[in-house]
What we know:
Alpha-Beta Plaits; alpha+beta; 5-stranded mixed beta sheet; 14 helices; Rev_trsase/Diguanyl_cyclase; signal; Immunoglobulin-like; transmembrane helix; 3 domains; Rhopdopsin 7-helix transmembrane proteins; transmembrane; 7-stranded antiparallel beta sheet
Amino acid sequence: MLALAFALVALAPLPGAAADVPLRGAWRPAVAGEEAAAVRRGDPRLRTFDPARLQAFGTGTAGNWVLLWPSRDAWPAPPFVLEAKGAGLQTLALQVPGAASARSARASRIDPQAWPGHGRLAFVVDVAPAPGQALRLHVDAAGVIAAPMTFALQPVAAYLRADARWLAFASACLAMMAAMALMALLFALRLRDRTFVYYAGFVLAYALILGLQTGYVFEPLGWGWLSDWLRTLGRIATAASVVFAVLFADRFANLRRYLPTGRRPLLGYAGAITLLAAIGIVPGLDALARALINPLLVLGGPWLLIASVFATVRGSRYAAYFLLGWTPLLVVTVIGGLQPYGLLSGWTWAGDAALAAGALEALVLSLGLADRSLALRRDRDQARRLADIDPLTGLHNRRAWSERLLALDATVRRQGQPLSLLFLDLDRFKQLNDRLGHEAGDAALRAMAVAMRAELREQDQVGRYGGEEFVVALPGVDGAHALQAAERIRARLDARAMQDPAGATPTVSIGVATLGPGEDLPSLIKRADAAMYAAKAAGRNRVEQAG
């Protein structure tokens, strides 16, 4: 949400800022060895264009010449700034009429006389050209995508205000993406779930693409060492973003279940993008890869969106999260993919919208991942609870009770408190089963569990030890009070048995033992068990204390 707020501020007109100087423009392919002075207004080979609208120039080996001049042929008072927004990885060289040399810049390498620009390339003009003359830009897109650009002429103060605002906006968006990716990696380590890895891979790859396209990784981050790897890095980041996006959607939205036939073409699409990225590294085939990868990106966006719609309709809860977070990003990506072909050239906000959409996507999908992790934790806790509970009585089973007894033992020894144990066995339970059936036996076991819960404290640990045998751990209870607790349980069950003419409620024999100095738990359980057998031998329906 913070990124969206910054986006609204960044894209709104600057209050009090002077308006851009209206420009006119023309361009043509350059000729090898041609001097800048030879390019003049009135050349019949020039093609006119509107500098305020997006314009992509050719990728000829000699580059292209772009001429810019004020609509009314009246240059503003210097100094002023000429900015080229959306230049991407192209190299621009400015030739001011009368200047001794050109000033060149690209996102990854800034001439000392050109300003960094943060998201654009900027040239400060100290001396205005004469009326009727034009600023000449040489645009070189050799080896990179010829990204569409816009041009503007601004007073220095207005440019600096807009640049500071954009820098704050871009920093907030990229920081949000980085934070969400880092959080996902931490979840991946803790939950051992590849879904979080795929998500983090996509977010980081997409953030890198935005950082390269806007020049943010070079200014303000200052990672100039990346400039020698721009082409390779750009292809790897593009392929990684697509592959990780598809793999994430596949697992997060559970396409295997909700869209089993549609997921295979998506995985094949991710493979095709990877193949093109690999082909682009091979000398002589990079032009083919560049020509094919952009149309694939344009087609793949809606394809992924449609897949998430179908999965949502078919009941995938997380496909809805994917759809909500992904739709703005896919729309912006498709718009950006169409603009190099001259379409939607008036939508000059797409570059900034890509940053905001990336931040929004990272936030929404992180919420979805958090929801998924909570669901996984609930399922895990429920599964563990079911594994710990005896389904008939609702008490701890033998394994779970033994684990809790170990924890209680460590606590009472540390605190110097007593620990007592009850070992309980229903009297003549086999005969009851043989006489009345197993349903009556099950009812008797449940009645035993109810009686123990009624007479024991919340902190006492009750478990079914096996068959008709039960155990109770009483932390902080000495032998005398443990005898009282056992007698209450015996008396409750005896009173119920006396009121049951059908004889479906058995009585219980109970052995009581208290942990002695230096005694271990197996010995304690053995003594309580022996005391229970002593109660049986003494006539049943009684409590005996271990010696």
